[in-house]
């Protein structure tokens, strides 16, 4: 006689969904918790915030680099990316990536400055004070080398592939982008970097490499250092921010299509 009781095994949709949610939470808590446990004693030991951040970043690069080198299966997921030999597809992807990154810079920076003008940000003010009090060479090294390398190693080199082992491109992209924006510690930098985070995740999905996202990130930071503040301030108004954000959103569609076109059966025109 059967009891009619249904046991939700691993293949049950609800159990599968809960498992994915638990996995995502574990990855996020592991990344944030690990970084915090590493950063706190170093920040207490090294009085310079810039030097402390560079030290933590260097340790992150070495640690995650060892994981990727010694246990590559931990950060591998399917389907496999398209081979790099098709130059036409590569050019098509990178054209859209460059355009999306440029619009992410303009929309993100303009939106961040608009928010700063409207509500201010004590956290961003502290960030500026730290930069002004630090040696220029250290700030440049952190901005153009250490930050892009360490942040991409942690988020696109570790967190993103771990999430992609159990979730979709969209979920992994949104989660890593949210965490990436939040760890900057203030609303202004979070608003500026969130559009970039989405572009970087799609580049990571397409290339499965680290150096590509590091270069894009470094180029973004270089532009932030070189573009005159007056030019960005001129765009920090709703009638500029909204069209820029809309144009960036439109660019994401073809970039997403090309990023997810993996495997031998995928054929997408450049």
What is the structure about, briefly put?
The chain has one domain. It has helices at residues 13-45, 49-70, 87-119, 122-133, 136-164, 169-182, 187-207, 211-226, 229-235, 238-259. It starts with 12 loop residues before the first helix and ends in an 11-residue tail after the last helix.
Tell me what you see in this structure.
The chain is mainly α and 270 residues long. The chain has one domain (13-72, 89-259). It has helices spanning 13-45, 49-70, 87-119, 122-133, 136-164, 169-182, 187-207, 211-226, 229-235, 238-259. Helix 5 (136-164) runs antiparallel to helix 8 (211-226).
Overall geometric form: globular
- Uncertain segments: 1-9, 263-270
Compute the number of helices. 10
SSE topology string: HHHHHHHHHH
User: What about the largest sheet?
Assistant: none
From the alpha-carbon coordinates, what is the Rg to the nearest angstrom? 20 Å
Mean pLDDT: 90
Query: How many discrete structural domains?
Result: 1
Secondary-structure-based class equals: mainly alpha
The number of distinct β-strands equals: 0
Strand content: under 5%
**Spatial gap, N to C terminus:** 61 Å
The level of helicity is over 70%
